[in-house]
Design a protein that fits this description.
Layout: E1 2-4, H1 9-18, E2 27-32, E3 35-42, E4 53-64, E5 69-75, E6 81-88, H2 90-99
Parallel strand pairs: 1-2
Antiparallel strand pairs: 2-3, 3-4, 4-5, 5-6
Helix pairs in contact: 1-2
Amino acid sequence: MRRIGEGGEMAGRVVAIVRDDARFTDVLLEERKTGLVLYRLVEPQGRPTWDAYYRPWARITLRDPATSAFDLEYMRYTRKWQRLDFVGLLEDCVHEIARDRAGVFFPPGGG
């Protein structure tokens, strides 16, 4: 996993969780005031490697600072964020992405 900018405490926690998971190797992480945005590397088929780009893939946003509750969202094909029916700690959200019970983060065939 790569990080954009200086990062912070939240980004550091996420990197520590996914450190050994190969599915996160080409993921770019950006920490913002409202939470984290994860970008996925897209390499268009049949194009040179320099045509690759990162697109928004997952977002973890702070719901309640008092309880450290976060919402988990994914980027739809419509380029709009879609909230999942999942609320948890930051670590729980990262584990939920890895488990992908909703089937939106790691679809079969790598889509």
